[in-house]
Amino acid sequence: MAEHPPYDGGAVLANTRHLAHLDLPGAGQVYVAGDYCYIGHIPNPAQLGTTILNIADPARPRIVSTVTLDDPESHSHKVRVVGDLMIVNHEQNNAGIGRKAEALPPARARLRETLGRPPSDAELAHKLSIDVADIPLLEAALARPYEHGGFKLYDVTDPAEPKLIHYEKTGGKGVHRFDMDERYAYISTEMAGYQGNILVNYDISDPHQPREVSRWWMPGQHIAGGEQPHWVGIQNRLHHALRFGDRLWAGVWHAGLRVIDISDIAEPRTIGSYNYHPPFPEPTHTVMPVPFKLDGRDVMVAIDEEDQYYNAGEATRRKGRPHANLWVFDITDLDNIKPLSLFQVSELESPWSRAPNSRFGAHQFHEKMQDTLVYCTWFSGGLRIVDVADPLAPQEVGSFVPVPVAGQPAPQTNDVDVDARGLIHIVDRNVGYDIVEFVP
Fold it and tell me: CATH code at 257?
């Protein structure tokens, strides 16, 4: 992989120092455990699933092993490690085609009834808002349903030689994101009979035989159980849930957020909720509590995912629509969750904020807080380090916007982790892995 010296020009830095870069393929998650960094990759021609790096010398990260996929229909863009156990997801490539395929038979039936004859491919394509050329792809997807969704568990006692332990199949389009600890995995996945991702909790104390212990979903998702959603398609669904103590903190897309009690993990129950959609249009991605009180309050932070594109010269980004941002909430009373403040990044903060075919807006944060700092990734806006010591007025205290590489129009900084040394690891959705140091 191509290496670059620390940036001394082009990148936009504030209170940060760039230590290293690798032109790794696009990634969905970065996770650091000890001297090793684990990166899960977005779909790519080489079917690369996971890259494992030795980062003992942060100025010279080096690849020690890779895990490739033997299934060309799947990707494995999320990864976590606890002890010697690594879990990666299996999710369908281009899942949108699969969902459109599921809509094809009812759309054809409705058009036949309306027109009094079988519809043409052009009429079907118009109904489904796709290109006519996509119709054969949908037909092929219907003829060969996706059956590979799930997650895999690996022994990484020696990170240079990961060993597959078990492949757990789930359902639908598969697993998106998840949390884990020494005993349980908290999996966001589609499952037969449900609409959109739900939470499935597994006991992984014996990684050779994971055992499902419970499920949680929002009322309306369990179609097979007779429930009917009050929303369109999969607008409301679990993105993923993070465990802190006996609670899971969940982003549920256009349904906002949920707090789930798992003191009895066999019976998860919702104990708090808040939804700011509408008026805010960008979906809720990740939610976590601040591990200490701020100004006498119990506080939670949430971050949205920028879900709209800005193409220069095209009206694909609605003027006046706010970008995804970081939220701060008062959760002292979970029956009455209150928003306290927002943090937003101006388009003026990045020279690539309006690059063609690129997003600009929030996406994810480091899913653990040691102090009042929240390390956020911003599409086209890089790394933003935000201090929430005053929950009513979050302040940016550092940033790093990398230079686009490999011919990309803009950085699409996708995920972040912070190691025990305080060094910050970020990955790009298209190309790139960087190590950054905060130097206040």
Answer: 2.130.10.10
Q: Is 135 helix (H, G, I), strand (E, B) or coil?
A: helix
- How many separate domains does the chain show? 1
Rounded to whole angstroms, the Cα distance separating 215 from 117 reads 44
Tokens of 340: 């306290």
Q: Structure pTM? A: 0.92
d(CA 428, CA 379): 9
Whether 7 maps to a domain, the answer reads no
User: What's the domain range around 228?
Assistant: 12-88+169-438
CB of 374 closer than 8 Å to CB of 380: no
In this structure, the number of other CB atoms found within 10 A of the CB of residue 336 comes to: 10
Q: Is residue 96 part of a domain?
A: no
Q: For every one of its 440 residues, what pLDDT tens digit does the chain have, with 9 covering 90 and above?
A: 555 444 445 789 999 999 999 999 999 999 999 999 999 999 999 999 999 999 999 999 999 999 999 999 999 999 999 999 999 999 999 867 777 777 888 888 889 999 999 999 999 888 888 889 889 888 887 888 889 999 999 999 999 999 999 999 999 999 999 999 999 999 999 999 999 999 999 999 999 999 999 999 999 999 999 999 999 889 999 999 999 999 999 999 999 999 999 999 999 999 999 999 999 999 999 999 999 999 999 999 999 999 876 544 444 567 788 999 999 999 999 999 999 999 999 999 999 999 988 999 999 999 999 999 999 999 999 999 999 999 999 999 999 999 999 999 999 999 999 999 999 999 999 999 999 999 99
